[in-house]
Amino acid sequence: MDTKKCTAEVWCASNRMVTDNKTSWIAGAHLERFTAAALTRVGLPPADADRVAALMAEADLQGSDGHGIIRLPQYIKRIQAGGINVRPNIHVIEERAAMAVVDGDNGMGHLVVSRAVDLAIEKARSAGVAWVGTRASNHAGPASLYVRMPVAHDMIGLYFAVGNANHLPPWGGMEMLLSTNPIAAGIPAGDEPPVVLDMATTVAAYGKVKAKAKRGEPMPEGWMIDRQGRPLTDPKRAHEGFLMPIGGHKGYGLALIVGLLAGTLQGAAMGRDVVDFNADHVTPTNTGQAILVIDLAAFGGAGPFKAAVDTLVRDIRDSERLPGVERIWLPGEQSHGRRAEYARTGVPVASALVDELDQLAARLGIVPLRPQVS
Fold first, then answer.
1. Which ranges of 23-143 would DSSP assign to H, the alpha helix?
2. Which residues pair with 129 in a beta bridge?
3. From first to last of its 374 residues, what are the pLDDT tens digits of the chain?
4. In terms of C-beta density within 10 A (0-12 exposed, 13-18 middle, 19 or more buried), how is residue 312 classed?
5. DSSP at 152
6. Is the CB of residue 367 less than 8 Å from the CB of residue 41?
7. CA distance 276 to 165
8. In whole angstroms, what is the distance from residue 227 CA to residue 336 CA?
9. DSSP class of 319
10. Is the pTM of this model over 0.85?
C-alpha cells in the first residue's frame, strides 16, 4: 500500500479507496455512508440507519473487524428474512430509581443497547449507580462501544452480553450450551487514554473466526478444538468444533455468570434458548445485554479518580519488563492508537469482503464501494 495516498486530507476530502491484491483501505466515513444507505434501503428509518452505521464504522475504526462492516450482509439477510424488526418500539418494561429493563422489540441491537446506555447514564447521575438490562435485542457489535459512552460523561461503564450463537460447551462437555458472552469495562483517565477492557470469555470471539475465514487466514492453535479434542485451525471448518474458554474451567464459569446476568436476569435467551443467528435468519434471537454505570461524582469526584488512574497507568507502563518486551500495554491503548492510525490511512477491509459488499450493493440498488478505487 502506498501510504502517501492515505493522508487525512485525501480521506476526508475524497473518501477514495486504496487497494492491493488482498486488502482495501477505505475511509471510515465512506464505510459509514455505505452502511447507512444499505440499511435505509431495507427499511430502517434514516435516523436509525445513521446511528447503526456510525457504531459499525466506529467498530472498524478501532480495529474490531469482526463486528464492523463484515456483519452488514448478515444483518441485511436477517432483515429481509423478517428476523429483525426495522421499526421497533423500544420501551422500558421495568423501572426503579437505579435500574430498568428495556424491551428492544426485536430491533437492531445497536439501537437497543444505545437506548439502555443512555438511560443508565441518566439514572446514574441521580442515583450514583445504575443497572439497565435488555431483552428482545439483537447483536450489537463490540462491547467496548458501549462502555466508552459512560466514560465520555466521567462515568465507569461495565457491560455484559449473551453471544448470538452457542460455540462453547460446559467444561468437560461437548454440547454447546454457552456463547462467547463478552464482558467489557471502561474506566476514565485524565491525560491518559481511558482504560477499556473488551474480552470474550472464550480465547477468541467468534467474530474473529469469521474475519480469519474472510481473509483466508488460519486460526492460531488454542482458539478452537474439534470433537476429538484436536486443535482446529481452519476457520472454514469452525462448524466442526467449538471455541475454547479462557483459563480453562475458570473461563467456562465466567461465561456462565455473564450469561445469567445479561440474559436470564432480564428474561432474555440463555443456554438452549439461544438462537444461532449465523444459521437462522428468521427466528427472533431475544438477545440480552446489560450495562452498569457508576458516576464518579458519587465517589469523591472525577478529578481525583482520573489523576489516580493516570498515575497507575504510567506506573504499569514504565514498570520493569521481561527481556525482549518492548512495551507494556494497558487495555484499550492499542485500539486507541489504531483509531488514530485508521483515521489517517483508512480502514483495512479484506478485498473478498469488498467484493461481497459490492454484490450486496448491486442487489439493493445502491452505489458500490469499488468505483472509488484509485
1. 28-41, 46-61, 72-81, 109-127
2. 294
3. 343 333 332 233 334 455 556 888 999 999 999 999 999 999 999 999 999 999 999 999 999 988 999 999 999 999 999 999 999 999 999 999 999 999 999 999 999 999 999 999 999 999 999 999 999 999 999 999 999 999 999 999 999 999 999 999 999 999 999 999 999 999 999 999 999 999 999 999 888 898 888 888 999 999 999 999 999 999 999 989 999 999 999 999 999 999 999 999 999 999 999 999 989 999 999 999 999 999 999 999 999 999 999 999 999 999 999 999 999 999 999 999 999 999 999 999 998 899 999 999 999 999 998 754 44
4. middle
5. T
6. no
7. 4
8. 38
9. S
10. yes
Pull the grid cell for residue 15.
Answer: 473518501
Residues 6+ apart with CB under 8 A from 194: 148, 151, 186, 187, 188, 332
* Distance, CA of 58 to CA of 64 (rounded, Å): 9
| Nearest 10 degrees: Cα torsion 340, 343, 344, 345 | 110
Evaluated on CA atoms 242, 244, 245, 249, the torsion sign reads positive
Residue 158 and residue 135: Cα distance in Å, rounded?
Answer: 17
Is residue 265 exposed (0-12), middle (13-18) or buried (19+ Cβ within 10 Å)? middle
Whether the CB-CB separation of 287 and 179 falls below 8 Å is answered with no
* CB distance 103 to 93 below 8 Å: yes
- Return the amino acid letter for 199: M
Q: Are strands 129-137 and 99-103 parallel, antiparallel or unpaired?
A: parallel
Check: CB of residue 130 under 8 Å from CB of residue 98: yes
How many Cβ atoms are within 10 Å of 329's Cβ, its own excluded? 11
CA 127/CA 140 separation, integer angstroms: 27
Q: Contact, 53 vs 33, CB < 8 A?
A: yes
96: β partners? 99
Half-sphere exposure at residue 207, Cβ-oriented, CA atoms within 13 angstroms: 25
User: d(Cα 289, Cα 202) in Å, to the nearest integer?
Assistant: 17
3-state SS assignment for residue 195? strand
Q: Mind listing the domains of the chain with CATH numbers?
A: 3-81+346-372 (1.10.1530.10), 91-202+245-302 (3.30.1370.60)
